[in-house]
Amino acid sequence: MSSPGDFYRSLPPVTKAYGTLCFLTTVAYQLHLLNPEWIYLDFALVTKKFQIWRLFTNFFFLGGFSMAFGIRILMIARYGVQLEQGPFAKRTADFLWMMIVSMITCLVISLTVPFFNSIFMGGSLVFMLLYVWSREFPSSKVSLMGLVSLQGFWLPWALLLVNTMFGAPLMSDLLGIIVGHAYYFLAVLHPRATGQDYLKTPAWVYPLNYFMLPRNIVF
Question: Which ranges does the record mark as transmembrane (predicted)?
């Protein structure tokens, strides 16, 4: 049986980096080393005080230690890992580009559509991963809370319903579904039908692979 350290080292680089950043951000918050006010999204602070980091850091906070936080981390560890090791195997740059495009899309929608405005969009990014996974593994059997078995295709909608019933913000998860669908349509369905790929990974993303290699990531 492999140790937790072996399991961690076996994780694909982008998912491992994102999951670790989310976990460490919450740990820092719980230890009172990090004030969420330092990292939340505020377009006024970005444009007027040039606090550019807020465009990225808001995606790394999934809240304090709670069941909701644990579920989000497990979603990254399961669905993000399966995506990166499956359809995106040996395509680290493409997976990273998907994350970048999705973050930009979340920011644009949050800025232009008032009821999707949010100061933290980590949950939306996690739900984006889940949605893309559900399209790549539509026939996979999934157990929902150990009570209901359903196909992977329906999992995002089932979790959206369950989360809403338990009081989770509807718009955060729904934004992730919308962003995931937009990405999957433009990156997979449209190129498959027309041969035109509008979301082809740009050349500048590929050198970032060097920094994503496991031996170069030190936590």
Answer: 17-34, 55-77, 97-130, 142-160, 166-186
* Mean pLDDT, the chain, integer: 92
Can you tell me the mean pLDDT for 185-211? Answer: 90
On the 0-12 / 13-18 / 19+ scale of CB atoms within 10 A, 147 is exposed
Query: If residue 151 lies in a helix (H) or strand (E), which one and from where to where?
Result: strand 148-151
If 0-12 CB within 10 Å is exposed, 13-18 middle and 19+ buried, where does residue 6 land? exposed
Fill in the DSSP letter of residue 33.
S
pLDDT of residue 216: 43
Instruction: For residue 7, give both structure tokens.
Output: 């399991």
SS3 144: strand
Cα Rg for the chain, rounded, in angstroms? 17
What is the rounded distance in angstroms from the CA atom of residue 7 to the CA atom of residue 129? 20
Mean pLDDT of 20-44: 97
Residue 94 pLDDT > 60: yes
Total structural domains within the chain: 1
Q: How many CB atoms lie within 10 A of CB 180?
A: 25
> Which CATH number does the domain housing residue 171 bear?
1.20.1540.10
Helix (H, G, I), strand (E, B) or coil at 182: helix
